[in-house]
Amino acid sequence: MENLEIIFTDFNKGKIDKLIYEELKLSTLKLKSSHFYDNISEKDLDFSEVKNIEEVLSPKGTGNIFLEELKLGILLKNVVIVFSFDEQYGDIVFNFPKNEILTDETHDHKLRLKQLVYFLVNLKKNYDIPKIIIGYEPATDKDTLLIEINKVANYDEEIEKILS
Q1: Tens of pLDDT along 48-104?
Q2: Distance between CA atoms of 25 and 47, rounded to whole angstroms?
Q3: pTM
Q4: What are phi and psi of 18, to 5 degrees?
Q5: Dihedrals phi, psi of 106, to nearest 5 degrees
Q6: CA angle 112-6-136, nearest 5°?
Q7: How far is residue 39's CA from residue 57's CA, in Å, rounded to a whole number?
Q8: CA Rg, the chain, in Å?
Q9: φ and ψ of 57, to 5 deg
C-alpha cells in the first residue's frame, strides 16, 4: 500500500507546543504508539509522559507518534507523525495511507483534498511555515511530489492536475 506524506519543512521549534497541544490537540487523541527520547533525563518517553515537546526535542531531537486518527481539515486514519529537529528548526512529517485522500469516489477525493490543502494553507500562515509539501512517500522527490504549498496562487488548479 502506498502512503502519502505531508511535510512541514523548517518548522520553528518555538511554536511546536502550540501546534501539537492547541491546534492539533494530540494529547486528546487515541494513540497506537509513540516514542520520544529525552536528552536531559536520557530516558525513552511515551507521548503521554511528554509535558513540553519543545523541551524534549532540545537541543536536538526526534520523536514519533502513531495515531488512530487525526483531523487536518479532514479526518485521516492511521497517521504516523515524525518529528526531527535541530537547535531551532525541524521537519514534521505526517504519513498515512493514500486511500485516506485518494478514494474511489472522484468528487469525494477532490473535496477532501481541497479541504486538506486549504487547512494546510491556513496552518502555513498561522505558524509561518516556510514550505509544506504533499506527495507520495518520499514526498521530497520531484517524481512523487504532488503539491507544494509555498507560492502557488491557485491551489484549485493544482488539485485538478493531481486528480486528472
Answers
A1: 999 899 999 999 999 999 999 999 999 999 999 999 999 999 999 999 998 888 666
A2: 12
A3: 0.91
A4: -65, -45
A5: -55, -50
A6: 85
A7: 8
A8: 16
A9: -90, 15
